[in-house]
Amino acid sequence: MTASEFCAINNIEDFNKYQLKxxxxxxxxxxxxxxxxxKEEVNRNVENIKKExxxxxxxxxxxxxxxxxxxxxxxxxxxxSEFCSVNNIEDFNKYQLRxxxxxxxxxxxxxxxxxxxxxxxxxxxxxKEPINNYTEYKVKTEILFTV
Length: 147
Known about the structure:
two-stranded antiparallel ribbon, 5 helices, Membrane-bound Lytic Murein Transglycosylase D, Chain A, two-stranded antiparallel sheet, alpha+beta, single chain, rod-shaped, 14% strand, LysM_dom_sf
């Protein structure tokens, strides 16, 4: 638990000026399962991001004159196998496109899977709701920094 977290959960504005009182009850991190809860929160946030990516990964594309399977796939940042898989095309060499046909293509305007990295997990941690996992501590004669 950082000093700023400690001050925030105990409504201490300036720890340099704060005077502890004997018998005062302060909240401190419950370290026995704090790491486990933190990992669960991060995993849950990462999973939610991945689901959102999957839901918005593909958009509709209307086939135009002169389009080819590979041309459509590559122009939307997709491999031939991904494009064929998404559109249930068994063999792109034999597949006949029809003008006006609607196919699924990568939604390149949205976040890509590669953008969900361990670096971004730290950003997720910063914006998530604080974990309310605190234990009360009764002040004896210690100073604030030893808590």
